[in-house]
Amino acid sequence: MDSRFFDSGFASLEAYVPGEQPKDRKYIKLNTNESPFPPSPAVVEAINGDAASLLRLYSDPTSSDVKQAIADFYGIDTAKVFVTNGSDEGLSFLFMAFSEKGTAFADITYGFYSVFADLYHKDTTIVPLRGDFSINIDDYDGIDKTVFIANPNAPTGMILGLDMIEDLITRNPDRLIVVDEAYVDFGGESAVALTEKYDNVAVVQTFSKSRSLAGARLGFVIANPAIIAGLEKIKYSTNPYNVNRLTALAGKLSMGDREYFDKTRNTIIENRTWTMNELRARGFEMTDSKTNFIFVRHPELSGEAYFLALRQRGILVRHFTGKRICEYNRITVGSREEMEALIAATDEILREAGVNHG
Ligand SMILES: *Cc1c(COP(=O)(O)O)cnc(C)c1O
Q: What is the pTM (predicted TM-score) of this model?
């Protein structure tokens, strides 16, 4: 029961539930879309060095080094970059302070959107995906609210073409379009270039997935400088030192190590293709993933049964209970060894369930 001191306005808030991180045994973790690879060696070396001794000092409230590294990576001005404590913080601020007329997002998308909408008491329009989980941008016509689109979408892994994103932006120049590109580095097309052309688009990205820094908590927003100034205002009104020193250092070095970034993300993409082919050969159906996860179901094995059987064998994946997706599991693409273990476990599970796949 809530404390009697807890604001009644939050009584019905349903908090975000992160993927489970059980400690009862060692699992192959394919449930929270982390990278199987360590951060860039440059990051590990710097943090293992004397960086920790500087923790007595506050971090740089402007995160200027990280900002510069991001601006360099994308070839844009630093005035267009806002650095956040995980991309969840950027999303939080955009829901809080850039959604006065309300918010609109898909019925099947990142689960945090509905939590933020509730937290900030936003009037929200839920826009159902098509039957095949694709986004129909016509469905957003006439909705004069801030639109949040995960592209690629989660947990479906599917992309919306950049031409469609541009259509969304131009069809209503007085509404802000937020493009959450948490997975863009695994095969999507970034909308960053559109922020040079339009003032009603904000791109949100994270270091958690393609840069192996989930535990460091680092993300960023790219948008026109006026939007960035608004985000800075909110930051200085809540937590000026939002990015800690070690994380800022890790972010700068990670952005600078283009070679390692390309090597690791390409390996994930190769492992994804391999795993999708193996699963397809075993009768699984799946969406066309452009992310570091695969969204699968099997016509002869329930989503829950597959999830529990994998768990019993020490492999964690993410199972959803929503009506449209309860037969699906979202499986993070890990190392080749982890994917081979997944397939071996899957063979056992199918055999035990009496599913014949030739
Ligand atoms: C993982 C994820 C995020 C949040 O990532 P952070 O770890 O907070 O940077 C945001 N959006 C989507 C769609 C995600 O999958």
A: 0.96
Superfamily, domain 8-37+259-352: Aspartate Aminotransferase, domain 1 (3.90.1150.10)
Say if domain 41-257 classifies as CATH 3.40.640.10.
yes
- What is the band of 22 on the pLDDT scale with cuts at 50, 70, 90? confident
310 CB less than 6 Å from ligand 1? no
One-letter amino acid for residue 170 of the chain: T
Please work out whether the CB of residue 88 comes within 6 Å of at least one atom of ligand 1. Answer: yes
Q: Atom of ligand 1 at shortest distance to CA of 91?
A: 10
Domain ranges of the chain: 8-37+259-352, 41-257
Instruction: Answer whether 8-37+259-352 and 41-257 agree in fold.
Output: no
Query: Does ligand 1 come within 6 angstroms of the Cβ of 86?
Result: yes
Nearest C-alpha to atom 2 of ligand 1 is from which residue?
Answer: 182
Cβ-based neighbour number of residue 293 at 10 Å: 28
**Is the previous residue joined to 173 through a cis bond, with omega within 30 degrees of 0?**
no
Name the one residue in this structure whose structure tokens are 């509404």.
175
Q: Is 206 in the pocket of ligand 1 (CB under 6 A)?
A: yes
Return the structure tokens found at 256: 């600078």
Edge-to-edge strand ranges of the sheet holding 177-180: 81-84, 219-222, 201-206, 177-180, 146-150, 103-106, 124-127
Please write the tens of the pLDDT for every residue from 149-194: 999 999 999 999 999 999 999 999 999 999 999 999 999 999 999 9
d(CA 328, CA 318): 9
